[in-house]
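cache lookup: miss for this entity combination. No prior model stored, computing from scratch. Input as submitted by user K.M.:
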Amino acid sequence: MSSAASLGSMSTAARRARERAQRHQLIITAARELAETEGWEAVTTRRLAERVEYSQPVLYSHFGGKDGIVRAVALEGFTELTAALRRARESVQEHGPEDGTGRTLRAVGMAYWDFAARHPALYQAMFVLPTDLKFAHEETPQALRDAFGEFVAAFDPADPERLAMAEVSWASLHGLTTLGMSGRVPTATQTERIELLVTLLVGGG
Amino acid sequence: MSSAASLGSMSTAARRARERAQRHQLIITAARELAETEGWEAVTTRRLAERVEYSQPVLYSHFGGKDGIVRAVALEGFTELTAALRRARESVQEHGPEDGTGRTLRAVGMAYWDFAARHPALYQAMFVLPTDLKFAHEETPQALRDAFGEFVAAFDPADPERLAMAEVSWASLHGLTTLGMSGRVPTATQTERIELLVTLLVGGG
DNA sequence: ACAGTTGTTCTAGCGGCGCTAGCGAATGGC
DNA sequence: GCCATTCGCTAGCGCCGCTAGAACAACTGT
């Protein structure tokens, strides 16, 4: 406990921190790529260490364990999902305001499925693999709140059931997505199911 | 390849087959109980063998491997789920025919969530754990077809979109269920979400 | 320039996993 | 009573997540 003694060269410490951050991201990216190409069951600490050309214990110095790595990948996924949903929502909303036919929700829903279909392993890390990431909780990471916020933003702010509608839409899309990804409903007709779901949710007949 | 030679005593063979079937079920039940009390990650072939008081290889003589055991538990789950959904549906339909307010779907949806909440590990084996059980496939087990059939039966046979409606309702309920079970949406308000979903699906405003 | 201290990475190994080869003991047929 | 077959067991393979402690490198003050 030498307190603030031995601070060392500031720039040296900065460089080390930078290198460490780079390696941190390298591990996340390697785990994600390995999961996306061979599935999460192929992501072992040994194989991952070999990929990043460091020994196993290095992984444990960055993340608490394998769960921590999956968690980090999932968090990255939530940030990207939020960006994708926002892009879809804004691109629709700038072509005129919501007109009650669910144009916004349709665009967000399609973007949601598209995201999951393009990054199935990433989606699994976010929603399927066992994790301690909670949503409606005080210590929920901002990335998760933002993603949910995109669903909320697809509904009329004046709607008293706005939050509940966002929850139900999101969960329903999630159900369609997981069943589609695991091959339990045919993906060929997936967009039609999403169309139907959105139509029903926004009250169209 | 001694064809039908060495048949042995018929009754003896029958007793053996009976005992083997009992042990088969014993393994399934033990795996299910262990999963329900300690989670699927605690279900290992070693622990399971200890529970049923046989050695590990016995498990492999009954099921191809751990996946086969999970699959057997899942199949049992589909049979029970079908029974639960049918009970709910018939108990509603015998109190008068469908009137367009989604009484049937509401009962089926509630029974669905109730089933998952009561047997979370069983539900996971059926829908979350990696498995090769396909749904819309030629060799889909009857138990799975029957479960889906209960959703179909909740809609008007005259509706041309009947099958699509069943798919979407089922997937949406599945989404609410998984997010509820993993703590991603609060379970305290889960029935309200299901109410809202059903209302939206059947076209109520 | 150098000795000491601090921090970081690696080698090696623990217990447990899914799974299987091959042995030994019952069991039923001649 | 001997043989053939069936059946469950012991033992072990290669892998897993994870960690203790050695080996090394880097930075410090003199």
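stored under new cache key. The two ends of chain B are 69 Å apart (CA to CA).
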